[in-house]
Amino acid sequence: MVRPAAKIEIRGLSAAYGDRVVLEDVSLDVHEGEILAVIGPAGAGKTSLLNCINRMSDMIPGMKVEGSIRVDGREVRDFRDASDLRRRIGVVFPLPVGLPMSIFDNVAFAPRMGGMRDKKKLAELVERCLRQAALFDEVKDRLGDLGTRLSGGQQQRLTIARALSLNPEILCLDEFSIAVDPVTTMKIEEVIKELKQHMTIILVTNLVLQARRLGDRTALFLDGRLVEVGPTETIFSRQTADVRTFQYVQGLFG
Amino acid sequence: MNGALPFATTDVTRASRRRESAVRGLLGIVTALLILPLLAILGLLIRHGAPALTMDFLLTAPAAGMTAGGIFPTIVGTLWLVGVSLAVAAPIGVLAAIYLNEYAGDHWGTRIVNLAIVNLAGVPSIVHALFGVGAFVLFLHLGTSILSASLTLAIMTLPVIIASTKEALAAVPMSFRQACWVLGASRWQTIRHVVLPNSIQGILTGVILQVSRAAGETAPVMFTGAAFYLPFLPQSVHDQCMALSMHLFTLSTQVPGVPEALPYATALVLVGLVMSVNLTSIVLRSYLRSRRKW
Lengths: 254, 294
Ligand SMILES: Nc1ncnc2c1ncn2[C@@H]1O[C@H](COP(=O)(O)OP(=O)(O)OP(=O)(O)O)[C@@H](O)[C@H]1O
Ligand SMILES: [Mg+2]
What we know:
A: alpha/beta, B: 2 strands, binds magnesium ion
């Protein structure tokens, strides 16, 4: 069996907001077609890691990034226009954000910004993305309603549909279940398993059991450092390389 | 027995309720008093000015050494001044505000610019007038003209337009911008399709309020482009013009033998103009707010 090449290759990554270092010397691979669960306590640097990968770090005043991140072998720093990079990486934030426009326009926004004008193609695309995000049946009769007027859980799935609208090869989900009820969470988890067929997924989560359910591999961050990364079974077994991993996933930490 | 019930009224809650209604009453009365000056001014103007306020008054030129006739040229002149100054100040102000709020980071350069804007907004209008004479009339050789006067008004209104536009832009939640950026939208695409459509009500309100301010100011136009009396209407921005505010000043202090009703009627027109502009802004605001999207 040929090992798939790393989709994302992170080497010696450090990041800081001003003088405050929040990621230190992180090296990590994300394999093609896997779900990498990223766990760790609040402030560990999980969100900062995602911001580095899609260069949202450019948009945060005072954020400095060092080290190397390669996506498909290409250094992200070298993208002249970070938009080209971001269009290939879908990101879902912890708190759902419906853009102040119709549900349809929310999903069609990114393709339109990319120059897609064909009404029929857009309609097909919007339907496909909403279906993929398990939202279509709930909103199909009111695609013209404002995205901001949906419930929190619906907006979260709308955000996922939007993230899928550019057919990204990589999808980053940042604590998507934070504002969502258990039923919707389960719905979205099914969606994620489905999406794994087509893309590489980084799943940042505060729920260790969610990492266990979904992650092919799991990475634990503590205080800006990668403690351990490995197959999810290993991370959740007694054979962890680092004792802190065992303590954290068993809830014995601190 | 009663005292043991969980929702019982006690002396303490009764006293607190009395205080509550006393405070509410006081605040309400003070607020109501605010309307008095406005009513008094309007009442005075209407009582003295209304008899002279005819169609003729609005549509004819002053006559008999300004002791008779109407104010038509001053209305035309004020429209010129406000229109030209707005055509200059609104686009520049809005563009500068977009730059400051959306592009410029927070560093010493932008802090100096922001400080300058705040201070410029506090400069008295007579100082703007002197600056206008020096910069536009003399240095740029624009002469006393509508152009000079309008540019002076533009300089005066610009900082306020910038400040109110920035405020309107900043009211659009940052999370909307981030949501666009992660989708690969550029800064300008984000501004054009999300930020501006959702801040336009605030931007327009700010701009319109400066219209009424520009219409009412006397000092900035007095030395730079407004004339006491002109026998003809302005044909271009290089002509001088008459102005309502200036005319009111002239009638009430510079010309002997003016019938009392004339300045009052002129003031009534000026106040009416300013109030209708403000009203437009209020109506526009509530219309756009009813279409708010979040
Ligand atoms: N914009 C910012 N400016 C300054 N410091 C920041 C900023 N964003 C995050 N930080 C700091 O960086 C550290 C890491 O934050 P990060 O958001 O990456 O943590 P996280 O692992 O995602 O935590 P959580 O689970 O709470 O989301 C924290 O100490 C935080 O205070
Ligand atoms: Mg986070």
